[in-house]
Design a protein that fits this description.
With 186 residues, this protein is an alpha+beta fold. It has five helices and 13 strands. The protein has one domain (38-185): Alpha-Beta Complex (tt1808, chain A), CATH 3.90.1570. The two termini are 25 Å apart.
Amino acid sequence: MAMPTQHVGWTAEMARALPDDGRRYEVLDGALFVTPAPELVHQSAVMRLYDHLKPYTESNGLGETLVSPADIEFSSRRLVQPDLFVVPMKGGGRPKTWRDISSLLLAIEVLSPSTARADRLRKRRIYQDEGVPEYWIVDLDARMIERWRPRDERPEILVDQLSWQPRTDVAPLTIGLEELFASVLE
C-alpha cells in the first residue's frame, strides 16, 4: 500500500538518500510518498503505451520517451516518478542526467490500488501546476484514460481512442484504446 508520511518537510535530496530497496520514493509537495514495485499487469500497460509512443516521438523529433524508475525534480519539494513520460529535446539533444530534466511533454500514470488517490489528486495537481501539457491517468479496471491539461477542472474521458498531437506541424498519434486494453488484460 502506498503511504504518505506524516512529516511534510521532505526534499528531493532526502528522498534520494533513502536505500535502494525496490520501493519508489516520491516527494509530493514536501510529503514523502512510498509505493511498492508495481504489479505485472501495470507494467504490461506501461510497456504497451511505450511501444506506441517511442517510435512516434523519435520519428517526429519530439523528445525522449522514458519509463520509471526516474527522478523528475520540479523543485526541492516535488520529486515524481511518472510511470511513463516524454521529455522534450533541449537544444537538439537528449538529457544526460535526471537533473537535466526540468519539464515534460507528457506524463502517464497507470492506476494501481495503492497509487490511485495520489495519481488522481496530488500528482495531477503537481503536473498541472508545473505546466505539463498532458497528463494521462490509465484506469485498467474501467478501461479508460483520463486526459488532463494544465487548466482543466475535469478530465477528458477517453474510451475508444486517444489522439496526441504535441505539435501542430506533426500528424497526431492515435491509439485504439479497445485494442490497447485487450492486449493488456486478455
